[in-house]
Amino acid sequence: xxxxxxxxxxxxxxxxxxxxxxxxxxxxxxxxxxxxxxxxxxxxxxxxxxxx
Length: 52
What we know:
- By secondary structure, the chain is α+β, with helices and mostly antiparallel strands.
- It has a domain at 8-36.
- Helix content is 48%, strand content 15%.
- The protein has one helix at 12-36; strands spanning 2-5, 8-11.
- It has a two-stranded antiparallel ribbon.
- 0% of the residues are buried.
């Protein structure tokens, strides 16, 4: 099975590898955020979205 992005064919295995990489990056970011904000007076919801 192939998917098309910007007129290019991408195999399912390659797409799964890319998504897996993004999952690993998210887990790393969450871990760093939790460590760095453990002693914060007010905690931020990093999944809430929004922004300034």
